[in-house]
Write a sequence for this structure.
């Protein structure tokens, strides 16, 4: 929760005002949460892009003129279909005394033995859903795959989280596996 992000109240909510703000690098956003009044705000585009690049699921300290500083998460990001530019951000107030559901991004690192031997790396999942207290939520998890041989896989149940984190994703789900390469030409030359 070390990153602070500045949220400014929006001057207006018309389409032309939102588009003018975007041109100036201010992304329209909304701040909401249980027991909180929904507030239309705007956020600096560079600041929010930096957060999305480094820790998209991190709990942030949002500084607002009306509410002061409070913990939030980025709940939803809307982007333009063709350009990918940020269009709108939803910030959700986090109650630090109540458990929350969120996703944790999994980063796979290392070069597996199976890939060195000619296998193909197939990633089926890059994140898992968890339930925990907000201050226990990891921004991401590193998983070393260098020991995986051809035919090996990592399941959700193989991930080891700290105490207090409940994994909600099906434990039998395959996250990553090393598959054998089948040459299509050999299969065509040797029909069964």
């Amino acid at each position: 929760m070390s990153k602070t992000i500045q949220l400014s109240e929006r001057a207006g909510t018309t389409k032309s005002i939102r588009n003018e703000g975007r041109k100036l690098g201010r992304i329209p956003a909304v701040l909401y949460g249980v027991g909180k009044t929904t507030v239309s705000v705007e956020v600096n585009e560079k600041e929010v892009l930096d957060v999305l690049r480094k820790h998209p699921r991190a709990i942030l300290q949002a500084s607002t003129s009306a509410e002061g500083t409070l913990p939030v998460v980025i709940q939803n990001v809307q982007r333009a279909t063709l350009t990918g530019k940020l269009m709108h951000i939803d910030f959700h107030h986090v109650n630090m005394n109540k458990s929350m559901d969120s996703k944790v991004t999994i980063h796979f690192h290392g070069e597996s033995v199976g890939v060195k031997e000619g296998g193909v790396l197939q990633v089926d999942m890059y994140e898992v859903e968890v339930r925990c207290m907000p201050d226990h939520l990891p921004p991401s998890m590193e998983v070393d795959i260098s020991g995986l041989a051809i035919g090996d896989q990592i399941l959700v149940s193989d991930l080891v989280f700290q105490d207090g984190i409940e994994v909600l994703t099906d434990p039998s789900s395959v996250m990553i596996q090393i598959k054998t390469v089948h040459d299509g030409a050999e299969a065509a030359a040797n029909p069964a």
